[in-house]
Amino acid sequence: MHPSPTTPAPVRPGERTGSTPPPDAPRPDAPRRRAVDWRRWTPLGFLLPFGSLFLLTFVAPICYAVHQSLFKLHRSGLGLTPPSTVFAGFANYTEALADRAFTSAVVRVLLIGAVQVPLMLGLALLLALLLDGRRTPGKRFFRLAFFLPYAIPGVIGGLMWSFLYQPDVSPIARALSGLGLHVDFTSEGLLPWSVGNMLTWGWTGYNMIVIHSALKAIPGEYAEAAELDGCTGWRLAWHIKIPMVRPALVMSTVFSIIGMAQLYNEPVIMRAVAPNLAGDWTPIMAAQNEVAANNYQAAAARSVILALVIFVLSFGFMRFVNKRGAAL
Fold first, then answer.
1. 128 vs 115, 136, 173, 212, 241, CA distance in Å?
2. In the chain, count of helices (H) and strands (E)?
3. Which residue in 63, 61, 92, 86 sits closest to 73, CA to CA?
4. Long-range CB contact pairs, 41-49, < 8 A, 24+
5. What does the buried/exposed string (b/e) look like for 43-61 if buried means 16 or more CB atoms within 10 Å of the residue's CB?
């Protein structure tokens, strides 16, 4: 007898034999790749060009100057071998601060700036307010005339003023001599103020344009409301216009402080007619003398000291302005 075949179990409706899943069964989701949100990186793409240039032209030179200032040239006694660079710590800074010519140059520039910067910005503010007046005639002509000295290259302006300062050929000196006043603009006592006058002549127009642009940005409704309350003329300028151009004045002051500390062109040009003007009359000139002597490490130390002075003055002025503004 043959064995009877095994009868398979009956299949219920909806069941599948074996391990094959039904065709309509949900399948597990395959792992998906996470999409990159490029919108998060878009601002960085716009900042990359500026950041690269900022690091390359600002941060890197400062770091290199600080690094150079910590070293010093070492020369042998006989001078038969080339000089070598050795680590010196803060020796260059100590020598710079002990150098009376360098410290005198820093103090001299600070004294000139303490007088020249307020006078220049006050004159620029006055001219900007006059140009902003409704009844001022010839606004375009005067705006161009006041701005023209800034458009003239500084070297040409310095040569012009050095000619006007010479006692033998200066029409200003001759006019004062006719009044019985014998003035030598290149003397040691008047030389700082002669240089300050050159700076005021060259930069007042630039600051006037900055302040005048800020005045033009003031909505006209403020002036109209003030005039309805009887605030006109100089009262309108003092109570409405000047407080609203305060950011422009602060920016111009900071830029003027930085520019004053970097004074170089005008004194160098004046040396041709001013025998009392030394080669280290300003801090930049003192650092340039070290560069001419191939002492780059000492020049770097003087540059770092000057940068710290500029930072302290600018930061201190900003803190003072912010505290005063918060008090008001």
1. 20, 11, 31, 5, 11
2. 15, 2
3. 86
4. none
5. eeeeeeeeeeeeeeeeeee
Amino acid at 80: L
pTM for the model stands at 0.80
Structural contact between residues 277 and 270, judged by C-beta atoms closer than 8 angstroms: yes
d(CA 297, CA 72) in angstroms, rounded, equals: 6
Which one, of 203, 209, 218, lies nearest residue 149 by Cα? 203
Query: How far lies 302's CA from each of 103, 208, 286, in Å?
Result: 10, 33, 8
* pLDDT per residue as tens digits for the range 54-76: 999 999 999 999 999 999 987 77
Burial bucket for residue 104 (CB in 10 Å: 0-12, 13-18, 19+) = middle
**35, pLDDT greater than 80:** no
Q: Which domains does the chain have, with CATH numbers?
A: 99-327 (1.10.3720.10)
Query: What's CA 236's distance to the chain center, in Å?
Result: 32
Q: Please report which confidence band the pLDDT of residue 15 belongs to, taking 50, 70 and 90 as the band edges.
A: low
How many angstroms separate the CA atoms of 288 and 111, rounded? 21
Q: For 26-93, give the DSSP string.
A: PPPPPPPPPPP-GGGTHHHHHHHHHHHHHIIIIIHHHHHHHHHHTEEEE--SS--S--EEEE-TTHHH
